Each structure stands twice: as C-alpha cells, then as structure tokens.
Amino acid sequence: MKLIRHGEAGHESPGILRADGSIVDASDEFREFDEGFFACGGLASLRAWVDAGCPGGSTVDSDVRLGPPVARPSKLVCVGKNYVDHAKEFGGGVPDEPVLFMKASTACSGPFDEVVIPPGCDKLDYEVELALIVGRTASRIAASDGLDYVAGYTVMCDYSERAWQKEHCGQWVKGKSADTFAPLGPCMVTTDTLTDPQSLCLWTKVNGEKRQGGWSGNMMFSAAYLVSYISRFMTLLPGDIIATGTPAGVGMGMTPPRFLAPGDQVELGIEGIGSMRQRIISGSS
C-alpha cells in the first residue's frame, strides 16, 4: 500500500495512493496516520479496507496538495555519514558506528511545498535520504528483528544550513531544524510492497542537473541495523522517522561549494517510492 495525507498544511486528511495514480480519501474510516494509528493496528485495518475496495472512500482531485505521509512524529532521528562516498566529501573520516543527530519534527513539510531560506542562511544544502517509518515501539531490539519494527518507507530531503551546522558550535541540530527543512513523501510505501530497503536507487537534481545518484545497498549500516542501534539509546515510538543518510553529490562537497539560492528547483526521488520537488524561496528578514 501507499499511504498519503492530503489537504492544506496543518489540516491534512489520510488517504491511499492507488496503482493508477488516483487518490482515495480515507478520513471517514481513519482519523489520522499518526502514532495512535500505527500503535493500534491501523495498518492491518487499512489493508482490510483497501482489499474490500475502499468502501465509503471518495476519489480526490489529483492536483490536491500532499502533506507528509505521517502526522506529528515524536522524533525525527537522522544518520550522518552512512555512505562512504558522502563521508569522504563531508570530511572528518569514515565512522566506526552510526553518527546520530536529530531534526526538529516541526521541520516536516509536504513533498512539493516550498523550502524557505531563513534569515541569515547563506549555505543551504540538500541531501536525498531513504526514511524509515517506525511501526511499533522499539527499545533495545536485536538487529535481526530491526525490519519487523518498520511500517514503511518514504523519501526525505535533509535540507541543511551548513554554516549553522558546522561553524556555530554544538550539535548539528541547529543547521537541520528550520521550518520546511524536512520535506517527506510523496507517500509511505508499506513493507509488504517494498520488501528490500537495501536495493533502491536514490537521486537528486538541481535545476535539472543531476547532482546525486546512489544505491541504498551502499549504506555502511543497514536499515535493520539502524533501527536496532538507535533503540539502544532511545525508545522509538510508532510513527517516528529515521533518515538513513545520503550518497555523495551534495553542494558542500563540490569545488567550489554550490549552495542553493532563491528560485532553485530541487527534484529528488527513490526507486519504488516516488519523487518530489521543492522550489527554494527567501524567507522574511
């Protein structure tokens, strides 16, 4: 299944993306795709509803705005330097274990929403990432069980203000958490539909120029291992998001660096999930 949320920002409704590209509203049957939905067996109920032909569901205009496919995650946990080629372009060596940092969940936005450059930001960068959606509470689980705790997958662009991330002391979170810095979508693909997270192609284009091209099989730490590893340090709740890292080709890694500017168009996607696009705009001072 492919889960989507549609409607105005902050007022999205749950829905299903069918194989023919049509959208079916599910709000009469399901209140929201959030922590409670995943924790209380919502995916199984949704699957039964879809298998029954979506009774009571109405088709939604295909031009409707899409929001993040999951509502209000309690945490957005990110993994840095998880592809060797990106670790080398980032600098500081290849890590021996996963590098973890957080993005504020308020950074989440829809897959086609504009990305707003905040005042004082002049080193805006992009990173295409495979994001995992946690399906049930995970605490100190074994790596062999990691994927059993995943509900599905989506695409995330980890936008970063590199100066705030690397030059302002402290944790990376300062350069990662501005509003609109975590677009997600266009849908969440469930694990029964996308069965192997380590066999996916990732790509990014800026103004039509291909910048990133990678393969999730090149992750140093697999999706299953990451769920297990992160659960050693914090309890993961249903609906939480884990961003698994990015391949090489980010603007910071170029000579000279090529950061984003107002008017730029960023397109990115992952095989088997879909693609999304953002226009970069300047925020108010």
Structure description:
The protein is mainly beta and 285 residues long. It has two domains: 2-66; 68-282, Alpha-Beta Complex (Fumarylacetoacetate hydrolase, domain 2), CATH 3.90.850. It has five helices and 19 strands. Strands 1, 2, 3, 4, 5, 6, 7, 8, 11, 12, 14 and 17 form a twelve-stranded mixed β-sheet that branches. A five-stranded mixed β-sheet has the order 9-19-18-15-16, with no helix packed on it. The radius of gyration is 18 Å and the shape is globular. InterPro entries: Fumarylacetoacetase-like_C (IPR011234), Fumarylacetoacetase_C_sf (IPR036663). Belongs to the FAH family. Residues 75-280 form the Fumarylacetoacetase-like C-terminal domain.
Q: Which descriptor suits the 3D outline?
A: globular
- Number of distinct beta strands: 19
As a whole number of angstroms, the C-alpha radius of gyration is: 18 Å
Which CATH architecture of the largest domain would you pick? Alpha-Beta Complex
Mean pLDDT: 96
- Return the CATH class of the largest domain: Alpha Beta
Q: Unreliable stretches, pLDDT < 50, 5 or more residues?
A: none
User: What's the CATH topology name of the largest domain?
Assistant: Fumarylacetoacetate hydrolase, domain 2
Report helical residue fraction: 10-25%
End-to-end C-alpha gap: 42 Å
Largest sheet: 12 strands, mixed
Order of helices and strands: EEEHHEEEHEEEEEEEHEEEHEEE
Count up the helices. Answer: 5
Strand residue percentage: 25-35%
Question: Please, how many domains?
Answer: 2
GO molecular function: hydrolase activity; isomerase activity; metal ion binding
Protein name: Fumarylacetoacetate hydrolase family protein
Pfam families: FAA_hydrolase
Keywords: Hydrolase, Metal-binding
